[in-house]
Amino acid sequence: MITSLDPQSRAAARGWSDITIRNVFVVPTVLFLIVFNVFPLIYSLGFSFTDFRASTKDPANFIGLKNYMDLLSDPFIWRNFTITAHYVIVSVAGQVIVGFGMALLLNRSFPLKGLVTTLLLLPMMLSMAVVGLFWKLLYDPNFGIINFAFGLGRFEWLANPDFALYAVALTDIWMWSPFVMLLSLAGLSAVPKHLYEAASIDRASRLYTFFRITLPLVAPILLIAIIFRTMEAFKTFDLAFVMSGQPTTEVVSIRLYKMAFQEWQTGKSCALAYIVLIMVLCITNVYVKYLNKAKER
Amino acid sequence: MAVVSSRGQKLGNRVAIAAIIVITIVFLTPIYWIGSTAFKPRNLATTAPPTILFEPEVSPFVKLFTKRVQLKPNEQVDRENAPWWEQIIFDGGERISRTGKGEVQLSGYPDRFMNSLIVAITSTLLAVSMGTITAYGFSRFKVKGEADLLFFILSTRMLPPIVVAIPMFLMYRAAGLTDSHIGLIILYTAFNVSFAVWLMKGFIDEIPREYEEAALVDGYTRMQAFFKIVLPEAATGIAATAVFCFITAWNEYAFALILTNRRAQTAPPFIPSQIGSGLPDWTVIAAGTFLFLLPVAIFTFLLRNHLLRGMSFGAIRK
Does B163 contact A at CB distance below 8 Å? Predict the structure, then answer.
């Protein structure tokens, strides 16, 4: 104990005290984040109670909760939320199935394993807007390689209002299954080998081993992956915005963008932003809880 | 029995490896298609069925960087004295537009690419420096309400970009920061600092405190110990964090779309805007996409051992 206290007090006598260093190191960043992340949100909270339009010079009039009332009773907004929920479910479910399946396949030794794993992780590192744009060519009913590869003839992907959302979700699945794979692989490699050995001695079936050993032990990490992807899918903007102009793919973020920067209903869009913000904070809360749980392990 | 089961396992293994090969091919095809379209002649980019084998050419890249006009019928061009890259354009029935002084007019792409580089590199340097010292503060000293602060730091990153972009747009407009490099740099720094703090805290937590304490005994000040002991030990972590911040800033789309339109516009909002009305030239789009994705692809390989940690905010370590 003495050795750990002594050098610190001696160092303190020479240079800055630990408390000064702590403050110099921590306070500026926290202030910076408050100014650029919290202040804007307070600013927009104020606007959410007004009829402000950023395209005109008219002053903002206080209209109380009218924006919120209008939004919550607007069936079109609920459609945007339904579309978003639909998108979240399809794309996250797809990513979990494909990603976890890939992890199960890769969880063995084979030649060039490192290279193959890295190559498979590539899609999630790329820009969603830029790669999403290129998927328009892949989906093209006449020249696209997807219809060609799967022999689908002239199937319309993005131009079909009933199917566009699935097409966007499929691209999202392609981009983010590697993420679920990456986390699942970490979970799988952490399962102690002796459990499998014991199971094989007991002549446990593969299915039994999977459901009673593999799945329960990987579940916590898989859950983190699911929560993370749910949150990202809920926020989604780039892919749907770049790939499709269909009203059936108008997720909440796109509605928000149009309301704020095309219709210039600034006040109302701030109110919608706040509704979204509260929803995200709820998901984040759950997320961080699990994050901390995972860290404790 | 044992022999039979191991034979079964061997077969299972072979099936699994075959499946891995198929999946890898399927997953890489879109990326391969970007790369191959970038080297196709225009008439082979959109064919039915798609062209797989072709003679690669660099004309898409020449087109990507230059402004061109259609050749008028019977227009005479000086092919002999033109450089090779201009001859390629002549072959396509176009000529490169030039200023009155005869200088080649560049397309919007090189500027956007430069903007992306400026914004991503500057914001990465800022975010990583701030993130590293703040992470050290959180890692080594008691900070009141540490868990809440770390949660707050993280939560700022969880919001949909559009939610934050609306007030930022109004504030930047009032401050004259829209369509400026500084504006985007500040925003990306704020966006990445939270990530850098979380990731760097994990890396610094792993450096034994005894190293610094030994240095303090040797007569170092706390600051000297930080710069001479902790920073070199954390170098790998800093590099990994920097690459993650760079990639995030490089790929960012929504803020750039809303807050820039010309002078400071980065590549992600520019590349989709190349598709106007009419038939897009997919070879040029592919060439622009290819160059834009290349740095990220290289970084992914350099980063491969840290991907897990970075993508889970440091929650899961190997």
Answer: yes
